[in-house]
Design a protein that fits this description.
heterodimer; A: mainly beta; seven-stranded mixed sheet; four-stranded antiparallel sheet; 54% strand; globular; B: mainly beta; six-stranded mixed sheet; 53% strand
Chain lengths: 114, 111
């Protein structure tokens, strides 16, 4: 299994630009999570989906952030417009009941907004 | 009080030492517990689940104390390769699959 695949691995963009992060979960996993990690705040859950449906987006910082999961094999996290304080590593993770709620994380996208 | 709190780090230990991490959680209804390991600039990886009866995987032992609401991770015979950040993770029972990550404890194992 290829694991959870995220792209791009690194993204450097200018303030005000739109950023789209992508994630392909492990086949057969029905839950998908987007996390953000910074030194100051640690790992923060932004949003999670169950069977492609957003269940809890209370962690999404503000309206500039949006996430979609159009099908079981693809999800996007979009930031528009981006700001320097959005700089962080963004992880996607997937899980299934057979994993006993344990997650498998992707390698992350390191976002720098200048 | 944070939902999941871990020992402050970093822990600096010599090779071969035994080291223990504790983690407390605030929601008594929490059901699932895990330890993750995160290497520098890498993603977190599941180290082990924590079962009510306690469980062991080689040099690693995890224990759960529901009455006191804490979990622990014991690492015996530390290796240089054990140097990483260890994250305590607790399932939020009101959120389905939603889990809460602790801030992590940094471990340095030195030769």
């Amino acid at each position: 299994d290829a694991g959870v695949i995220q792209s791009p691995r690194h993204e450097v963009t200018e303030m005000g630009q739109e950023v789209t992060l992508r994630c392909k979960p492990i086949s057969g996993h029905n839950s998908l999570f987007w996390y953000r990690q910074t030194m100051m705040r640690g790992l923060e859950l932004l949003i999670y989906f169950n069977n492609n449906v957003p269940i809890d987006d209370s962690g999404m910082p503000e309206d500039r952030f949006s996430a979609k999961m159009p099908n079981a094999s693809f999800s996007t996290l979009k930031i528009q417009p981006s700001e320097p304080r959005d700089s962080a590593v963004y992880f996607c993770a997937s899980s299934s009941l057979t994993q006993g709620y344990g997650y498998t994380f992707g390698s992350g996208t390191r976002l720098t907004v200048v | 009080r944070k939902e999941v709190e871990q020992d402050p780090g970093p822990f600096n230990v010599p090779e071969g030492a035994t080291v223990a991490f504790n983690c407390t959680y605030s929601n008594s209804a929490s059901q699932s517990f895990f330890w993750y390991r995160q290497d520098c600039r890498k993603e977190p990886k599941l180290l082990m689940s924590v079962y009510s009866s306690g469980n062991e995987d080689g040099r690693f032992t995890a224990q759960l104390n529901r009455a006191s609401q804490y979990i622990s991770l014991l690492i015996r015979d530390s290796k240089l390769s054990d140097s990483a950040t260890y994250l305590c993770v607790v399932n939020n029972p009101t959120g389905g699959f939603k889990t809460i990550f602790g801030a992590g404890t940094r471990l340095f194992v030195k030769a």
